[in-house]
């Protein structure tokens, strides 16, 4: 949230046995804590619960609201008055959003709830009970779903995600509300350790998860990432979708999402990352960034032991600013609870960024002998970097043999081509091999890698 002088970040934090709503002034520095321990009460195993929040504004005041599916309540901070409060509910909220002057909630089953217009404290009574009925507040059971996963607002409509379907909730009042399923066979399986949906520029981006029969739980393993405009079929953006030899989604690169289950966006980039990290020197922390305009994926270094002052395992949450110009990193020490806020999404360290390509040949021959590697790169004009190209003939070995190293390569500022000759003896008739490209000292964009092979006395 922001006002005329400051940008503010609001968080719900646990400290020891207490709960606090924290207001951090990111412009001027002060941090204010509001004790909501009484309002939150006791929540068993909070690490295994889904937490959610939203901003809610009326003509009289502005609020920041938080909820957890481990408690039948919403806690809030009245930003205007600087006071805290709690709303008792007859259900446990999983996700909350602000829409058409109300708070909308999906519970931990298959019901959509909404508050009275302009009043976050007034809700419908228990299902099937006449003890409290407010005609303006209400609920809607989505009987076709076992449980609901996510909720968001696009183009003034409310969208609800089930396990494999997407619904639209239209209207602006009790008498005009309606629900329709608009997308089938695509959905989300929400978990306590994931944030699989984000919205920006009137589009939703989400990770579609699968149920793991091995882990007996929902998992984003190898799951696709989708872009959704609210009306068309969600479009895969995490990899090229090839039809008749051409990419039909405009994406010519991609990512292999093994375990990243958090997603967030600013106005230019979509970020995919992991929340929890072990604080060891060998921990390879990173995040992926998707350029929405160029439809390209990039991999960036995150935080690790070498650039953090915490001594324990840590947790990272990326939060976009109110104008979506950038993201802040909220880094918490998992053992002590100490929390740090950074205006960068990672930090420089002694680690050298690198990329490894893999090749497998079912029938190795002279035709498969690598003779050259061609790189298309772009770096800041006049900056210098050390570029090392090396190879390894094993599937997972860690020792690479140098083919060529440029100790002080100077960039022109434009996209340029670097051709590296590979001695025939390096990779000859190999069933599999890996090429490693490492670039140190400066920020460099690698646009393409091309390989050339030996073919009966000539190159191609």
Which residues sit in consecutive blocks of at least 5 with pLDDT less than 50?
126-133, 216-221
| Main β-sheet description | 4 strands, antiparallel
Oligomer: single chain
Share of helical residues: under 10%
List how many beta strands DSSP finds.
39
Biggest sheet: strand arrangement = 4-5-6-7
Dominant shape: globular
Strand percentage, roughly? over 45%
> From the alpha-carbon coordinates, what is the Rg to the nearest angstrom?
26 Å
Structural class: mainly beta
Mean pLDDT: 84
Helix count?
1
What's the topology here?
Blueprint: E1 8-15, E2 18-25, E3 31-35, H1 37-40, E4 51-57, E5 62-68, E6 73-78, E7 83-88, E8 93-99, E9 102-107, E10 111-114, E11 138-141, E12 150-154, E13 157-161, E14 165-170, E15 178-184, E16 197-200, E17 203-207, E18 210-212, E19 217-219, E20 225-228, E21 235-236, E22 242-243, E23 246-247, E24 262-265, E25 269-273, E26 276-277, E27 286-291, E28 296-301, E29 314-320, E30 327-333, E31 339-342, E32 354-360, E33 370-379, E34 384-392, E35 401-410, E36 416-421, E37 432-440, E38 444-455, E39 458-459
Antiparallel strand pairs: 1-2, 2-3, 4-5, 5-6, 6-7, 8-9, 9-10, 10-11, 12-13, 13-14, 14-15, 16-17, 17-20, 18-19, 20-21, 22-23, 24-25, 25-27, 26-29, 27-28, 29-30, 30-31, 32-37, 33-36, 33-38, 34-35, 34-37, 38-39
